[in-house]
Amino acid sequence: MIHSLFLINAAGDIFLEKHWKSVVSRSVCDYFFEAQERASEAENVPPVIPTPHHYLLSVYRHKIFFVAVIQSEVPPLFVIEFLHRVVDTFQDYFGVCSEVIIKDNVVVVYEVLEEMLDNGFPLATESNILKELIKPPTILRTVVNTITGSTNVGDQLPTGQLSVVPWRRTGVKYTNNEAYFDVIEEIDAIIDKSGSTITAEIQGVIDACVKLTGMPDLTLSFMNPRLLDDVSFHPCVRFKRWESERILSFIPPDGNFRLLSYHVSAQNLVAIPVYVKHNISFRDSSSLGRFEITVGPKQTMGKTVEGVMVTSQMPKSVLNMTLTPSQGTHVFDPVTKLLSWDVGKINPQKLPSLKGSVSLQAGTSKPDENPTINLQFKIQQLAISGLKVNRLDMYGEKYKPFKGIKYMTKAGKFQVRT
Amino acid sequence: MQTDNLELKKLVYLYLMNYAKSQPDMAIMAVNTFVKDCEDPNPLIRALAVRTMGCIRVDKITEYLCEPLRKCLKDEDPYVRKTAAVCVAKLHDINAQLVEDQGFLDTLKDLISDSNPMVVANAVAALSEIAESHPSSNLLDLNPQSINKLLTALNECTEWGQIFILDCLANYMPKDDREAQSICERVTPRLSHANSAVVLSAVKVLMKFMEMLSKDLDYYGTLLKKLAPPLVTLLSAEPELQYVALRNINLIVQKRPEILKHEMKVFFVKYNDPIYVKLEKLDIMIRLASQANIAQVLAELKEYATEVDVDFVRKAVRAIGRCAIKVEQSAERCVSTLLDLIQTKVNYVVQEAIVVIKDIFRKYPNKYESVIATLCENLDSLDEPEARAAMIWIVGEYAERIDNADELLESFLEGFHDESTQVQLQLLTAIVKLFLKKPTETQELVQQVLSLATQDSDNPDLRDRGYIYWRLLSTDPVAAKEVVLAEKPLISEETDLIEPTLLDELICHIGTLASVYHKPPGAFVEGGRGVVHKSLPPRTGSSESAESPDTAPAGVPAADQPSVIPTQGDLLGDLLNLDLGPPVSGPPVATSSVQMGAVDLLGGGLDSLMGDESEGLRSDVGGSPAMGGGSGGFAPAPGTAVPSNTGAPLGSGLGDLFDLTGGVGTLSGSYVAPKTVWLPAMKAKGLEISGTFSRQVGSISMDLVLTNKALQVMSDFAIQFNRNSFGLAPAAPLQVHAPLAPNQSVEISLPLNTVGSVMKMDPLNNLQVAVKNNIDVFYFSTLYPLHILFVEDGKMERQMFLATWKDIPNENETQFQIKDCSLNADSVSSKLQGSNIFTIAKRNVEGQDMLYQSLKLTNGIWVLAELRIQPSNPSFTLSLKCRAPEVSQYVYQAYETILKN
Q1: Is B521 close to A265, i.e. CB distance below 8 A?
Q2: Shortest CB distance from A119 goes to which of B10, B90, B156?
Q3: Three-class SS of residue B125?
Q4: Which domain holds residue A183?
């Protein structure tokens, strides 16, 4: 099981360590530093590193490495999932997860970590249970605590811990009862030079914010549940009911949670909402190249594409770029060779474009690869897969809640090869 | 500590955990509070107390922990019970004996039937952890009832608990296919879990139990279909999770390619994937490549070959070559893609391309020679040895079609001494080939290279190969032609497949570190003792097909066996290896000189003579220690006091052979234990080693049988011992003359000496051995019988004996009983003498025979013995006196083995 945890910042300092079993010396991290040195970028540090006596499993988030030390055969996914959970919990507690915040709240951090694992076994990882055990710090509470001498630590056994619905505490009360669901879809796609789709898939999630009194029992049904053939559920969803009736039936956790995530990979179901016209050429003889890209809407079902952002990693031999955008702003960083163009909204009548010339390092041959273009965008009020919620019903409680569903489509890893 | 403020209490507890170790005496003062807190009305505090106590690793405190823990295990509150379950595992880690003595293990087992699923999950987790350090104990005794309980708990416990339960389920062996199916049905919903570790553990259970389902079953097909989506979903998670998932998918794809054969596209690389994800995806793409999707794959690979990251580009180019070799229909397209890439003139791309084109030539001879001209244009830009060697091989192989082959090779020859060995060897072979093809024009060239290789080079490989060619060419050019230009065996389709036995084991370990490293857990987990080999269940039901993992390797006809051919060596390589072994440094052993021939004779002769039986034996050596290795069947039954020339009754021809190889140890009569399996094939990528120790006229030897159970040829064997109590070390290198072909075994007698470095081992006669071959290095340890260390001059003078006996203090005397031995004093004495235990005097006291004996160990330790034999009583009493009393126990063991065999 998980032996120890080290938090390492970008500079390579261990700024926090926690041991759940016997103490493992810090020097074990030297192997990690070695691997870090070998990897060109922080993202490329391999997640599993063997050392003579231990194994180091790490995740890299918010510019911090979370390195878990294990000694025996433990499922690595279990460790990595747990590390991500730790990061999520920190984020949940402190709003952001950064070195400064962690150092400022070191007592709470230790208390939380102690509560999450016991002897390497996960103890309480649900954020609502944790928050009952250890209350998140707020300015008001700190003031009250200093005056009254009370503490951040709850002295009652969290009620949900052992019930059949560990994710929900009892006795929840709200004056405004509301349940909001966000259907968010991300398109991952690779588009080739000629504009045809190589792969495209949709990663969808339904995030919920449920603030309902008592023990409500919700059912959510879809217009087209057949779309969802590859899904993973929050533990609260009754799987049997889904299998037989294709209805989501659940007692929701209190507050924010991810109800479901799904995956649509059938190519014909994935519409590509934007296209990119590009003309990027470098010539062998001269040190100048041409650069021109235009972005336009494709299958958007009449909705506006907004928040468009184009980034592209230029080849090393590019010295500078002189470009004029028809709208938005653009930046080229000559050090990292990263071009980014903040486009904004796409107006179908007047397509945004970025034109100009590229100056190359003199004397070098033309780069043999053309840069890949990365695209970000957002479309409100649209789930690109066509998924639609039919109705949401509540049982088990008397009052009438506010209900709301929002749809949104975003670009995930959306790449256009040139 | 006695504060009511919970936060303060927690922090104090935290402090205690960290600092108790440094100040144990202070920590003990906290015990009272712990005990009191364990009775607190608030379950949170009870749990906290028992949890903290378990974390304080101070012996004195653990003693006080038992009572509160016992109470907490039976607490009314499930929260306390589940915490206590984990605490048992903690306590076991600190003091295993205590846990067993206090009966906590049984209580823990009872908790598996607890009404609360969380308690069940933690009990399972704790038991699994304890079982890991106790491989033999049958802690998790799974039966249909307990499985049912686990499956029920599975639905209700937390995600982490589900992982523990699923991992535990995977160790269960269902009794028939119906049971397997019903477990599968209940596990399938876990595939939709949001936690990827749960998903992968569920995949493991399904993959394992699927093995038992009949393929005709509808359910089998449904299950296959259900497995694909969750695996694909894993790939949209964070990169670290993706990496682990991809390593596992790599295994799954090899075992059951049908699951993901339509999902090729999800493995396409995104340019901002971390490099470790890219490389894994590429690997799986090639495994999934087939005629149906090859066009897409090639287009992708070509795209990757223009990326920035050098490692990735190289691997992509290699992948194109592997596609060509794997999918024959695509070869042409692959070659033209490679040519396009060569035109880019990017240095490392060109070099990789040439290396893979060489392999394509090997696979499809005389098909794509038209591209040679293009390759030759890039001759000058090659600066890596592997690419240069590949290019030279191509020039030599197709010398007759390249007009200026002699000029090209000559140009390489100029800097001969600066080249790496690989290139030098290749150049030598290529020029000889060229000479044999165009003898008239190249005489000068070949002489030049031969003299360079034989006279000006320090490298023995190169020199020897040069001499052999020289000899061949000067004595019999026709034979030389036959040897050098012989037809080459085709290279196999996929060279990097994991062996079936290992693959099956790894499938049982899906989701663990083993599956990330693609190595069995024994190969890397600390203290390999805790490793239990897992194997896939055999298929039951109607279709007992050839699909079953056991029969698959055996059923393949020899010709189809994919054998890995060393990329640059040619046929002579094998011959040359003969001379490569460094000279024997230790005392020459009679058997070693004839070994080579004798083994061949044995192999051939015996196979025909006792064909069926030896076949049976060989296929039996599946790792059971009872099976005395491949030779056990025809070596003379050891130790039955047979006269030295045992060969006679066995038939003339065979008998002689036995004296040379098999019949070790019968000459001096020293007892030789039957061979046992020391290193099972499962642990060593198919290499099985069984063996024993013997002592023969003053020299110790280790008699080994190496069996190759893998699919590839093994060569380059070497052996090394760790430091040990008596300084045992190999006196000569391990000589296996011919590479070991699949399913072949070889017997070797390795001479040992006792001049190695000494380190006391526990047990004293423990020997740790490392064996290396061309695949990997493997480790095992074995116990040697002490009597191989009894030297021949161990006979003490009578006076000396008496004096020494008195001199050694009485507390050094140890008594042992040797039971059930029916020999009389004389035969005992002669039998022991055979193993260098010398009887100095014999007395008869009150009807009892007293034998006074002495022996000496190789390191000069004398052991004196008094053996009392009563004619009516089959039990002997052995008293041993020695200045180093720790050896006594092992001497006694030696006595017992000698006398009882």
Answers
A1: no
A2: B90
A3: helix
A4: 176-268+381-414
